[in-house]
Amino acid sequence: MARAGITADRLVAAAAEMADEAGFEQVSLSALARRFGVKDATLYSHVRNLQDLRHRLALLAGGEMIDGIATAVAGLSGKDALAAYAGAYRAYALAHPGRYAATQIRIDPTLVDPGAPAMRRTVEITYGMLRGYGLAEPDLTDAVRLLRAAFHGYCALEAGGGFNAPRDVRASWDRAIDALHIALEHWPREEHDHRV
């Protein structure tokens, strides 16, 4: 590819493809430079370093993932919204393993605009779905953490072939969503101490 055709967006898109093909940990500036047919140093006019590239990839993947989730949950509430949210999450994680892995990295908050559309949309959709269960802070944050842990753990085990029992993996997933729905409906509200 011609050097003039390289942009930060094209680099991130190529990194996303590479992550899904070879794994997130295999994404490097050297590998990208080879893919574009240029020297490593050429890429530094588009991204600061590997960490910057990986942060951009995480934001791209997070945006793609939340777009799919938003489409799935549109017009739904309660258990239907939870199941649609979870299904879109799982579908993205399994279809794009490298990009999904990027969404799990810790991003330095000083490097990311908290008002970035993908970040804002993720919060709005996730917290909006959980407010349907009558949750408010700090229970909202606790519920988000529970769902993230459950979805991520299940998807990681499934992708890694960690479920060996003869029970259908999808059937177990559906039962897990049923259990999470019950947990959310009967969430143990945190008692607030109003004493001064």
Give structural notes.
This protein has 196 residues and is mainly alpha-helical. The chain is built from nine helices and no strands. It has helices at residues 8-22, 29-36, 40-43, 50-73, 78-95, 97-103, 117-131, 139-159, 169-185. It is globular and about 55 Å long.
Sum up the structure in keywords.
single chain; 196 residues; mainly alpha; 66% helix
Residue share in helices?
Answer: 55-70%
Oligomer: single chain
Enumerate the spans where pLDDT stays under 50 for 5 or more consecutive residues.
Answer: none
Strand content: under 5%
Mean pLDDT: 91
Q: Write down the Rg.
A: 19 Å
Q: How many distinct helices?
A: 9
Protein structure class:
mainly alpha
Largest sheet: none
Order of helices and strands: HHHHHHHHH
Separation, N- and C-terminal Cα atoms: 67 Å
Shape: globular
Q: How many extended strands? A: 0
Structure described in brief:
The protein is an all-alpha fold. It is 66% helix and 0% strand. It is globular, with a radius of gyration of 19 Å.
Break the fold down into its secondary structure elements and pairings:
Elements: H1 8-22, H2 29-36, H3 40-43, H4 50-73, H5 78-95, H6 97-103, H7 117-131, H8 139-159, H9 169-185
Helix pairs in contact: 1-4, 1-6, 4-5, 4-6, 4-7, 5-6, 5-8, 5-9, 7-8, 8-9
